[in-house]
TrEMBL record:
Pfam family, one: CoA_binding_3
Gene Ontology molecular function terms on file: phosphotransferase activity, for other substituted phosphate groups
PANTHER family: COLANIC BIOSYNTHESIS UDP-GLUCOSE LIPID CARRIER TRANSFERASE (PTHR30576), SLL5057 PROTEIN (PTHR30576:SF10)
Compartments where located: Membrane
Keywords: Membrane, Transferase, Transmembrane, Transmembrane helix
Protein name, as recorded: Exopolysaccharide biosynthesis polyprenyl glycosylphosphotransferase
Annotated family: Belongs to the bacterial sugar transferase family.
Primary location group: membrane
Length: 471
């Protein structure tokens, strides 16, 4: 799932500025009337704030003051903020004159609100910029980029990309295609693969985006390379002169450092849909954690009484584009279940990389019940709240399953994994072929919509109430 970076950046900075002008307006109103709010039967206090917010919104839409936000110096930032606030003040004065409110408008509130807004923008923009540029290396939400290039170009490309200070992009590795330099570093960025091993590296590692910058005289099959990364659900950026290449996917232009590139992505998702999905996840997680707390009091003692061991079971799983996280469940097996799994591998009923047994001897009696009713999954609402998972997505594989993946299998990890999904509501215990699960997940990702998520949530409730498909 891909969303253009500038949309998120503008929304966050716009929100910071709206908060600043709102705080400034109410603070100056409070000071102007000496610690009390004026009696305002016509609600003009709030009406004037609405005008200020509307004006600032209009400025953002028309002039886009956040262009090159993360590259601006202190003085460039100050000049930009002065321009923004002067224009906002001029528009607000014009609006006050047109609605015949200028005579009643407090000059103190008007001038000091703009002064507060200027100081707020200068300070908060600086803090936000420093935080994001520092945090991008460690953030799980940053685009982890792999650069594919030649030995003579690598240093210049890395320098230029770092210099551009893209707020949510971090270079995690370099592939040198004209010689084997694996194990070395360029500007502290490790060289992780050569041409022969880059696909295998991408399968096993966290890679959100690949930037290919190679000279024309390199006789490499660019189209096959792009398709191989695309099969994993990885966004591919290609230097601009190759835009005409016929590959059946969405393409759009963007800048990688100072370089013009064409990005090949399976689907560009509007920002508002991403925001709504996350808001639904957070609301659902809080509700689910409340239910989990009540259920813990009821079944916790039964789990502990039947077999010694922890109440909750945790396990490393593989999430979006290879990110490792710890998943949580109510323990439904004996404490030594992971060790005993090796003894049962020859009884696996699934075709492929997943392990499934209908009568698994590692499952306790209470475990059978909580699995059949899907109660064991409730602690995963904590994973949803943290952002490791979503309410709806694809099933996150175990690490040992993931290590057996082929390139096209990784495509099912190009979206945040879910507490429920298409497989869970399609009779999961009746599906024995892993390739069928992959096909279902890829179809879900390619045709994702909020409507489909809500349909899956409703179907999940029905499946859980009937205890169907869970063994």
């Amino acid at each position: 799932m891909n969303v253009k970076n500038s949309q998120i950046q503008n929304l966050i900075i716009f929100t910071i500025d709206i908060v600043g002008i709102s705080i400034g307006y109410f603070l100056m109103t409070f000071l102007r009337f000496r610690g009390t709010f004026p009696v305002d039967p016509e609600k003009m206090v709030f009406y004037r704030l609405f005008i200020a917010v509307f004006v600032l919104t209009l400025l953002y839409l028309v002039f886009n003051p956040n262009h090159d936000f993360f590259k601006r110096s202190f003085w460039q930032e100050l000049i930009c903020n002065i321009k923004t606030n002067v224009m906002a003040a001029a528009f607000m004065a014009t609006a006050a004159y047109l609605i015949d409110d200028a005579r009643d408008y407090s000059r103190f509130i008007y001038i000091m609100t703009m002064a507060f807004s200027l100081v707020w923008m200068q300070i908060m923009h600086r803090i936000y910029r420093l935080y994001m540029l520092h945090y991008r290396k460690h953030s799980s939400m940053s685009r982890k980029m792999l650069i594919v290039t030649t030995s003579d170009r690598a240093k210049e490309i890395i320098e230029n990309i770092i210099r551009e200070k893209t707020w949510n992009l971090w270079i995690t590795g370099v592939v040198i295609i004209d010689k084997n330099m694996v194990g070395k570093e360029i500007l502290s960025i490790p060289i992780v693969a050569d041409y022969d091993t880059m696909i295998q590296y991408a399968i096993r590692s966290v890679v959100d985006e690949v930037f290919i910058h190679v000279p024309d005289n390199q006789l490499i099959p660019i189209k096959e390379m792009i398709c191989a990364f695309e099969d994993m659900g990885i966004t591919v950026d290609l230097n601009i002169h190759l835009f005409e290449m016929e590959i059946d996917t969405e393409k759009y232009l963007q800048k990688i450092g100072k370089y013009n590139a064409v990005s090949f992505v399976q689907k560009n998702t509007p920002l508002h849909m991403i925001v709504i999905k996350r808001v639904v996840d957070i609301i659902g997680a809080f509700v689910g954690l409340g239910i989990t707390g009540v259920v813990t009091l009821l079944i916790g003692p039964l789990i502990k009484l039947e077999s010694p061991g922890p109440l909750f079971f945790s396990q490393l799983r593989v999430g979006r584009n290879g990110r490792i996280f710890k998943i949580y469940k109510f323990r439904s097996m004996y404490a030594d279940a992971e060790e005993r799994k090796k003894e049962l591998l020859d009884q696996n009923e699934m075709e492929g990389f997943m392990f499934k047994m209908e009568h698994d001897p590692r499952i306790t009696k209470i475990g059978n019940f909580i699995r059949r009713t899907s109660i064991d999954e409730l602690p995963q609402f904590w994973n949803v709240l943290k952002g490791d998972m979503s309410l709806v997505g694809t099933r996150p594989p175990t690490v040992d399953e993931f290590e057996q993946y082929e390139g096209y299998h990784k495509r099912r990890l190009s979206m945040t994994p879910g507490l429920t999904g298409v497989w869970q509501v399609s009779g999961r215990s009746d599906i024995k072929d892993f390739e069928e699960i992959v096909a279902m997940d890829v179809d879900y990702i390619s045709n994702w919509s909020l409507k489909r998520d809500f349909e899956i949530i409703l179907r999940t409730v029905q499946v859980v109430l009937r205890s169907s498909g869970a063994k």
